[in-house]
Amino acid sequence: MKVRYLLFAALALGSCDADLRDLCYNHNHAGDVNLVFDWQKAPQISAKGMTALFYNQDLASSEPERYDFSGNQGGKARLSMGTYNVLAYNNDTETILLRGTDSPKTLEAYTRYSSIEEGTQLTRSGMPRGAAEDEPVILEPDPISCKLSDPFSIEMDQAQTITLQPELRYRDVTITITDVPNLQYTSQFGASLSGLAPSVNMATGKVGEGCATEAFTGLAIDGYTLVFHVRIFGHCPDVTNQHILTIYAILADDSKWYYSVDVTEQMHDEAQNPDEDEEINIQLHDLPIPKPIVNGSGFQPTVDGWQSVEINVTMDD
User: Fold this and answer.
1) By the number of CB atoms within 10 A of the CB, which of 25, 176, 199, 297 ranks highest?
2) CB of 290 within 8 A of CB of 307?
3) Which bin fits 127, alpha (ψ -120 to 50), beta or left (φ > 0)?
């Protein structure tokens, strides 16, 4: 007897009465989205993988549906009926961390705390912070791009294509210092830059509140020129804040020097570095690196440890 009741129940659930179609679970109330990425606004991003977060606006309190795609072309997603936004970003990063993922309005990219030693890759402990002692040091962000779509609707069993143009969520800073004397005697060097944004909103590109310092390495491209490259989320939102560049140099005699210069004017120079540009260029001239002691001659450090030099470095013409 029990077997008959079970068979009847199974048959009832497996059929769809015409008058009860809203309760029919055999209908798949979903549609397909073909997500395509157009990289004309961020051609320098060579994404090895992309993440798409689909936010259902009809279920504002729910977690987004996540799809990961290999490569940078896109892929397909199947979503239940509703109105959505999709936020997509390249996921081939190591330093980028995300928070506020429950809403596209709050999703932020940031990096963990770091140190001057880690960023410059100088192994000497106790390196000075320069002028921005109260700012946290953060890790340099990896190249990150993002785009938030306009709202779109998912209809039952209908396919559609959504094309997104990811935009950069970082800026490159290039610092060039020419006519550097005694560069051939410098065995190691690095730099740090203060007054930088600690995070960026992925959807809007607006930088987070507060200021941070980043430390980074450099390269001597000839006997008289130093070049530094660093990625930043952006400027500190308070334009009154200073940007202090600190350059660290270890000479052949193991003496240690650091040079602090205010580069706020160059960072904020709209004629040279408009906000819409991807790269900020700082061109400086002359860094007074002393000649180390060689066979008893040269500049003798007066104290052990890092020697501070505050200088007025001029812009290179």
Assistant:
1) 199
2) no
3) beta
Give me the sheet containing 199-201, strands edge to edge: 97-99, 108-110, 199-201
- Closest alpha carbon to 34 in 69, 71, 61: 69
Q: Are 110 and 99 in contact, with CB atoms under 8 Å apart?
A: yes
Non-local (6+) Cβ contacts of 24 within 8 A are: 16, 17
| Distance between CA atoms of residues 280 and 264, nearest Å | 12
Residues paired with 216 in a beta bridge? 191
Q: Which residue has the tokens 């987004």?
A: 64
Instruction: Check residue 261 and give left, alpha or beta (phi > 0: left; psi -120 to 50: alpha).
Output: beta
Separation between Cα atoms, residue 275 and residue 299, nearest integer Å: 43
Q: How far is CA 281 from CA 153, 207, 261, 288, in A?
A: 43, 20, 15, 21
CA–CA dist 196, 173 (Å, integer): 11
pLDDT tens-digit series, residues 207-255: 999 999 999 999 998 889 999 999 999 987 666 678 999 999 888 888 8
pTM of the model: 0.83
Could you identify the residue written with the tokens 């020129």?
A: 225
Angle at CA of residue 10, ends 6 and 12, nearest 5°: 115
Specify the DSSP class assigned to residue 212: E
Radius of gyration (C-alpha) of the chain in whole angstroms: 28
**What are 173-184's pLDDT values in tens digits?**
999 999 998 888
Distances (CA, A) of 88 to 54, 67, 72, 135, 272: 9, 9, 11, 31, 31
* Residues contacting residue 284 through CB under 8 Å, at least 6 positions apart: 175, 176, 177, 178, 261, 263, 313, 314, 315, 316
Tell me how far the alpha carbon of residue 225 is from its chain's centroid: 28
